[in-house]
Amino acid sequence: MAGFPGLETSVDGSAYIDAEAMALTTQKMAKLGAKLFVILTEEQELPEGSFAFLQQAAGDSGLTLHFMPIVDFEVPRAEFMAKWPALWADIRARLVNGETVACSCQYGAGRSGLLAAFTLIEQGMEPQDAIALVRSHFDEAIESTMQEDWLTSIKATS
């Protein structure tokens, strides 16, 4: 779980991308065993060109990007869920092969925590246990009641 790589805030409150920080973050993800990086942020939330910068940095680091936007503080919508089975098959195969799967939203807590917990549930963990485990690593994870309620209502598909 991570915040969007290289996303910084200037003293005037405007957001910008620090290309060096982005490159270092994607390189660190790769060194930690990640080959797949799931982006949960909506493009319009970020400074212009952020996704293009990330595609370059991820490619340079050997990461495959998968864009699966979720509205901030919300839960996956129908479009996400329609694409989920194929992504889940890829994630599961990578985890079985000992890889790490990276995920990012804007801050690295809400949507990233949601996806981390969802992945644990898909592997058979009880929802409350998955939420607790994710929060034991980042107590701000799964930021909204909507996200927590969604997670506790789902059952594993595998």
TrEMBL record:
It comes from the Bacteria. PROSITE patterns: TYR_PHOSPHATASE_2. InterPro entries: Prot-tyrosine_phosphatase-like, Tyr_Pase_dom. Residues 97-149 form the Tyrosine specific protein phosphatases domain. Coiled coil: none annotated. This is Tyrosine specific protein phosphatases domain-containing protein. The lineage of its organism: Bacteria, Pseudomonadati, Pseudomonadota, Alphaproteobacteria, Rhodobacterales.
